[in-house]
Amino acid sequence: MFDKIFVEKSYETNARALSIINRFPKAKVSVIDKIEDIFNRVKKPYLQKNESLNLFLGEKKGQLVKEAPDAYGLSGEPHYYFIHAYNCIYECNYCYLQGYFNSPDIVLFLNHRDICNEIESVTEECSKKGLTPWFHAGEFSDSLALTHITGELEIYHELFSRLPEAKLELRTKSANIKALLELTPKKNIITTFSLSPADKIKKNDLQTPSLRARLNAIRKLADAGHPIGIHFDPVVYDENFKEKYTQLVEELFESLPVDKLEYISVGVVRFTKDVFHQVKKNYPSSELLSSELIKSFDGKIRYNRPMRLWILSTIREVLLNANVDKEKIYLCMEEDDELVIDS
Amino acid sequence: MRLLVFAHRAEAQTFLKQANYRSLESKSYPIYKNADSYLIISGEGIFNALECTIATLSKFEDISVVYNFGVAGALDDQSEIDSIVEVRTCYAIINEVVEFKSFTASSKSKLDCITSSSRALDKEKASKLSPFANIVDRELWAIAKASSNFSLDFRAFKLISDEPYKEESKASICEVIKDKAEYYSDKLYKEYLNIIDQPIVESKFVIEEYKDLYFTISQYRSYSTLMTQLLTKYDSEEDILKLVEVDKIITLDILPKQRTSILLEKLREILTPFNSKLQSQLDQVLSPLHEARVKTTLSKNLEIDQFKISATIQNEVELKKIARALTNLDYQAYRSLMRGNVDV
């Protein structure tokens, strides 16, 4: 998987670093002073992740827990994300990471204890105000894809077991639940799966597990009592869109009893200008480029308002027909967007 | 025409002998031309290569692709000594500072090159460069930068002359390279002959065989754009043409150019099915205004409900007609469509 592994000098003998390094016996290991001496120093083309991927191991410095942007998660509560990795082994052709870092190489930060300390202090501040903070892992990476190698899940599990007033969202497109299944389910640790119709996963979520594999993972976690959330995001329109989402919802609730669903969020495909430019460059024959996207009011590339509202209301209707509580459906909308049913 | 860039005359010697190059007048650096390419000797280093390549590309507008041939040192064991490798991405380090910008060649190679402003002759220097690339040279990044400035593709082929990552002390490799220059040039020339032997496959649209259609230049450009986009959704051009019933279109009793317009319109419809339906439903709702010759202008990209109307009133009859049209407009239906309540 990795051609070269670069490990920071201060982590050269760290047990977790060594355990990760041992998983990749063919990779060449180099000791470096700081990750930033090499990672992001030059523009490495994104698609080279398929040919020569490097791994960096070291310490995350600076702010470890950051406030999430508006409309990040369920509304009404403060949302934060913590950074324990940069970049993802998967290759979703709409992913914003292709325009975010200057390199697709994977960075794993190993100072999880420092991150936990910061989560604790944020939780304390929120508790004083009577708020339930949400912490999201996976803003810059998939939360579960590499957990069998990185082994940090139990650290966060132990932390959130001590912080029942805070919630942890593990967001994933993987089916890699081995490490999670070894842990006791906790009400405040929610695993959320991003799903799309099977053909869209094949076309757009490159290198990721199939829909079937993800649904199996959902079933196993739900059977074990782990809380499950779902993201239908990004929704990409095609002519059979409603039928495809109706079938997806049916298949989902064959794996997950509808009353066991914590929440479901729905978001329509959108790009910043830079990411869209990268998509055009990296995936010139992607169906995303031939869909009905426009440059929107804020410069982002998305469907026009009638179309995105129609998509959201159509999926909402499909979910309501499948007996999902309307309080559990979260539509990711722009501030001024309003469905006819809401107005 | 191709542009071939070499740092040293010795590296280019076989090309100059074998490929009928004739010297062109040049005050600053040697430049040659034959039937299908220009060849320049830039001199060693980033700045020489940048100056000469830019000067040549500025002077000769018929250059469509740039090639760099030369020697390079291996920074790891990914390339063998005496082998020729094609470069994927090139990076640069100038006065010990790594340049952020990189350039990627149109190549399937998996080897990257870093262009260094100073010679990399030993293990110590190689270890500083190897995190970024597999081989090191002195010019490529500059040549690629110049090509990029002119929006031209570049390709680079490097003969691995030495292995600094194995050298404990600064080796006298430069002398060895000079001695083997003729042998290196022969090898590079053979590689070049292999490259230019590869046929260029030009793709053509099937539609060109339909003689009952006539495409203006702009119509053909539209067709090409639409078809390229549709081919991301459908398997073949033939499938798409079948879907829009091209066989019926070509039998229509109108001018060939008008048949082409209809074809393009149908292609647009299948490319944007949602918006075609939305537009037709909006037209339906706004029809009372259109029938009264009131022009409607919807918001840009339909991002807000607001729309503008304009009309010319010449007498009271027209005024009353417009008033009636405004009264008959079902605004709630219009607003509902704009909020996504579309029948699809």
Report on the architecture of this protein.
The complex is a heterodimer of chains A (343) and B (344). Chain A has helices at 15-22, 112-128, 147-150, 153-162, 178-181, 198-204, 211-223, 241-255, 273-282, 305-321, and strands at 4-8, 28-32, 54-58, 65-67, 79-82, 85-86, 91-92, 106-109, 134-137, 167-172, 189-194, 205-206, 228-235, 261-268, 270-271, 293-295, 301-303, 329-331. Chain A is α/β, with parallel strands linked by helices and 343 residues long. In chain A, strands 4-5-9-10-11-13-14-18 form an eight-stranded mixed β-sheet, with helices on one face. The longest helix of chain A is centred in the middle third of the chain and has 17 residues, at 112-128. Chain B has 344 residues and is α/β, with parallel strands linked by helices. Chain B has three domains: 2-197, Nucleoside phosphorylase domain (Rossmann fold, 3-Layer(aba) Sandwich), CATH 3.40.50; 203-271; 274-344, no CATH class. In chain B, strands 1, 2, 3, 4, 5, 6, 7, 8, 9, 10, 11 and 12 form a twelve-stranded mixed β-sheet that branches. In chain B, helix 11 (273-285) runs antiparallel to helix 14 (331-338). The model of chain B has no long low-confidence stretch (mean pLDDT 92). Chain A binds chain B through residues 4, 6, 28, 30, 32, 38, 41-45, 48, 51-52, 102, 237-239, 242, 285-287, 289-290, 292, 294-297, 303-313, 336, 338-340, 343, and chain B through 76, 88-89, 91, 98-102, 104, 110, 127, 130-132, 229-233, 271-275, 278, 301-304, 335-342, 344.
